[in-house]
Write a structure and sequence with these properties.
Layout: H1 2-16, H2 31-34, E1 36-44, E2 52-61, E3 67-75, E4 81-90, E5 97-103, E6 106-115, E7 121-125, E8 132-136, H3 143-155, E9 163-165
Length: 169
């Protein structure tokens, strides 16, 4: 009898899981062009960035091929600075699908789903559609780019209404 319960429970959870089409990524990322400083333009809210403004990330290539990730922000409530250092690695030769960890041994998906030809902006998400970031090399992006990225994420099954627009001073 307990096996029947677990079987039925597993069907319930599998049946209730959201179904998404596979998340496409860019064809290729040249890591030496991607490394450097990025400013967060928008994000889906999560506990690790809650209440943050002036959010930025710096990516640096390590000698072993991994990427050092340094995230910074200023807390809205008291202007306190926060910093988190993590590591990322590419999961395939396209360098468009990465795994990132700030809490090893736990890694999350960091998939580059749009990237300007000149690497001036990037759209990063996760196949689960739980995580999403709009990043730029500058603290702002133009309206046309912003609207194009919102249309893209909507087409890919992300809920654009969940975007939090980052205060950049």
């Amino acid at each position: 009898m307990p096996y029947v319960f677990f079987f039925l429970a597993s069907l319930f959870f599998v049946g209730c899981a959201p179904k998404y089409a596979p998340l496409p990524t860019v064809k290729q990322v040249e890591l030496h062009k991607y490394i450097g400083d990025w400013y967060e333009i928008a994000r889906f809210e999560h506990f690790f960035e809650k209440g943050c403004k002036n959010v930025s990330a710096t990516y640096a290539l390590k000698t072993n091929g991994d990427i050092k990730v340094t995230n910074r922000c200023t807390m809205l409530e008291d202007n306190r600075k926060k910093e988190a250092i993590g590591v990322a690695y590419a999961t395939d030769t396209t360098n468009a699908k990465l795994k990132v960890s700030f809490f090893r041994p736990f890694y999350g998906d960091y998939w580059i789903i749009a990237l300007a030809d000149d690497y001036s902006y990037a759209l990063v998400g996760a196949p689960s559609r739980e995580y999403l970031w709009i990043l730029s090399r500058t603290k702002t992006i133009d309206t046309a780019t912003k609207e194009n990225l919102i249309a893209k994420i909507t087409d890919l099954g992300f809920d654009a209404a969940k975007l939090i627009w980052t205060v950049q001073e």
